[in-house]
């Protein structure tokens, strides 16, 4: 197993590669180990996938269980792990900074902070305050003994308020505040993504695996995207298969789903 410092250096180097990289999102130790065995170079946690695995809706798991989850994932793999830290679990910049420090103590080498408030009546922080929160997170990251990679997220598109100009303005404010990577989940068009890449000077993460985006990893890399993640889509795919299988069993009394299930022997070999 690499040290946290070595993992952090590997993670930084991946963002410098011209052809970009895919960072898939496990939600437990088993899925993290499978993704490592498949040859991925880094992992990112998913708040949605982890919440679903606990029988809870997304963004409802408190910080302490989330930190325990991060420690478990980070200890289970030799790959660098970046954490989905939602909005930092607080409005206040000083508590967002605390979340960064606690995540680092849990063993991850990077993490993302969103600019969503969690309030339906006012879902986005004002740009200046959102940048202040990122500045506090960046200062906390710089105080660590290794290069923690801070990702700042502009959530306009993901919450149903598509505004490319505001998204770009927010990402530019966040890079000035000290973010290492920028991320605007919900961007779907080639033109919009290419525009964002041109307008910022930090590596851009793009989310695939949700309705509306059909661009491939190679196509995104060709646009200059440095990092591609899948969010909760792998977890949703697994839950989709589980729901179909369980529904068949309940309503039809059959188990044809087992024909395409991975064998126990294969899983035993993977985890041995």
Q: Tell me, what's the shape?
A: globular
Order of helices and strands: HEHEHHEHEHEHEHEHEHH
- Taking all Cα atoms into account, the compactness measure Rg is 19 Å
Secondary structure tally, helices? 11
Low-confidence stretches: none
Main beta sheet: 8 strands, parallel
**Structural class from helices and strands?**
alpha/beta
Strand content: 5-15%
Mean pLDDT value: 97
> What's the number of extended β-strand segments?
8
Helix content: 40-55%
* Cα distance spanning the termini: 17 Å
What topology, given as strand order, has the largest sheet? Answer: 1-8-7-6-5-4-3-2
Describe the structure.
It is a single chain. The protein is an alpha/beta fold. Helix content is 48%, strand content 11%. The protein has 11 helices and 8 strands. It has helices at 4-16, 29-37, 47-53, 63-76, 93-106, 127-142, 164-177, 190-199, 217-222, 233-252, 264-271, and strands at 21-23, 43-44, 81-84, 110-114, 149-153, 181-183, 204-207, 227-229. It has an 8-stranded parallel sheet with strand order 1-8-7-6-5-4-3-2, sandwiched between helices. It is globular and about 55 Å long. The mean pLDDT is 97.
List the helices and strands and how they pair.
Layout: H1 4-16, E1 21-23, H2 29-37, E2 43-44, H3 47-53, H4 63-76, E3 81-84, H5 93-106, E4 110-114, H6 127-142, E5 149-153, H7 164-177, E6 181-183, H8 190-199, E7 204-207, H9 217-222, E8 227-229, H10 233-252, H11 264-271
Parallel strand pairs: 1-8, 2-3, 3-4, 4-5, 5-6, 6-7, 7-8
Helix pairs in contact: 3-10, 4-5, 5-6, 6-7
């Amino acid at each position: 197993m690499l040290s946290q410092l070595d993992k952090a250096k590997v993670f930084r180097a991946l963002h410098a590669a011209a052809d970009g990289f895919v960072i898939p999102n496990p939600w437990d130790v088993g899925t993290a180990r499978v993704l490592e065995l498949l040859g991925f170079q880094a992992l990112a946690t998913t708040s949605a996938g982890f919440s679903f695995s606990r029988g809870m809706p997304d963004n409802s798991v408190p910080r302490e269980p989330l930190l325990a989850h991060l420690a478990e994932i980070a200890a289970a793999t030799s790959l660098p792990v970046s954490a989905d830290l939602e909005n930092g679990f607080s409005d206040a910049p000083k508590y967002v900074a605390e979340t960064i420090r606690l995540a680092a103590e849990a063993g991850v080498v990077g993490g993302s902070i969103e600019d969503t408030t969690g309030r339906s009546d006012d879902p986005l922080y004002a740009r200046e305050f959102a940048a202040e929160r990122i500045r506090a997170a960046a200062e906390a990251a710089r105080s660590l003994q290794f290069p923690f990679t801070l990702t700042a997220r502009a959530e306009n598109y993901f919450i149903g308020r598509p505004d490319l100009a505001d998204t770009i303005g927010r990402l530019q404010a966040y890079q000035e505040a000290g973010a290492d990577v920028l991320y605007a989940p919900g961007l779907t068009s080639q033109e919009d993504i290419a525009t964002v890449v041109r307008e910022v000077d930090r590596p851009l993460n793009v989310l695939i695996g949700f309705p509306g985006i059909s661009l491939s990893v190679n196509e995104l890399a060709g646009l200059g995207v440095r990092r591609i993640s899948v969010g909760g889509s792998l977890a949703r795919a697994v839950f989709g298969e589980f729901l179909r299988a369980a529904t068949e069993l309940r309503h039809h009394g059959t188990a044809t789903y087992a024909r395409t299930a991975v064998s126990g022997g294969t899983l035993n070999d993977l985890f041995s």
